[in-house]
């Protein structure tokens, strides 16, 4: 096991590796664990794979559930309470020299932030896959993917800085997260939040840089990635639970967006779990 700095995490390190300027660790937290206020020397990315936790950051609460990506700047004090089913996360510790390199390219991760969905979600799931590979090509892929995540997060922060998202749009987004596997219509979503469908479509695309349909597709694929990795369900059941009409449609969409078939993705996850 890679030797990590004292106080690196408060949970159980399942797997860890070092890649130029980065330390990656898959970490498991036990149900109900209370983590006292603390801070880390380096900035880090935290991607929630399974379970949940609620953390307090600068007097506000953040509820972390699967597929949430958190950027935590160096020195940020935070405390957390893990949910009743525990939590599994992928942590990427960012060395200051690595951050300086990306800043030189105009990429800036500003302050505490959280992200969900879209290209970032897929990049994070691809990173989880490559993290579990054990060859030199995977090391290159990990560097590229973390850089891509930093680029996309920086772009998203820049695009939303100073922009006020209306309450009804937050409600529409929450509805999509709760009901992504259902057969939703733009008219139905618009009625639920009290706006015109055209206004919903235009405002949603402006705020989240994708259509409502694209966003739902991303949510389905993120759910499918988690289920393929961590559940025992047959792939046909995963496809239906994610909202795909059949397994062949699911397999094509999964491979188009991740580069791997569901069976390949599961095989790597299972191989890592046994190692």
What's a quick, concise take on this entry?
The chain is α+β, with helices and mostly antiparallel strands. 48% of the residues lie in helices and 24% in strands. The chain is globular, with a radius of gyration of 19 Å.
Account of the 3D structure:
- The chain has 275 residues and is of the alpha+beta class.
- It has two domains: 12-160, Jelly Rolls; 167-274, Orthogonal Bundle (Arc Repressor Mutant, subunit A), CATH 1.10.10.
- It is 48% helix and 24% strand.
- It has helices at residues 96-104, 118-131, 136-160, 167-179, 186-193, 197-208, 212-230, 235-242, 247-258, 262-274, and strands at residues 12-19, 22-29, 34-38, 43-57, 60-64, 68-72, 78-94, 113-116.
- Strands 1, 2, 3, 4, 5, 6, 7 and 8 form an eight-stranded antiparallel beta sheet that branches.
- A hairpin with a 2-residue loop joins β1 and β2.
- α7 (212-230) packs antiparallel against α8.
- It starts with 11 loop residues before the first strand and ends with a helix.
Number of helices: 10
Q: By CATH's scheme, which homologous superfamily of the largest domain applies?
A: Regulatory protein AraC
Report the CATH topology name of the largest domain: Jelly Rolls
Strand pairing plus helix content: what structural class? alpha+beta
Estimate the strand proportion: 15-25%
Flag low-confidence runs. Answer: none
Shape: globular
**Averaging pLDDT over every residue, what do you get?**
87
**How many β-strand stretches?**
8
Major beta sheet summary: 8 strands, antiparallel
How many angstroms separate the termini? 12 Å
CATH structural architecture of the largest domain: Sandwich
Radius of gyration: 19 Å
Helix fraction, binned, reads 40-55%
CATH class of the largest domain: Mainly Beta
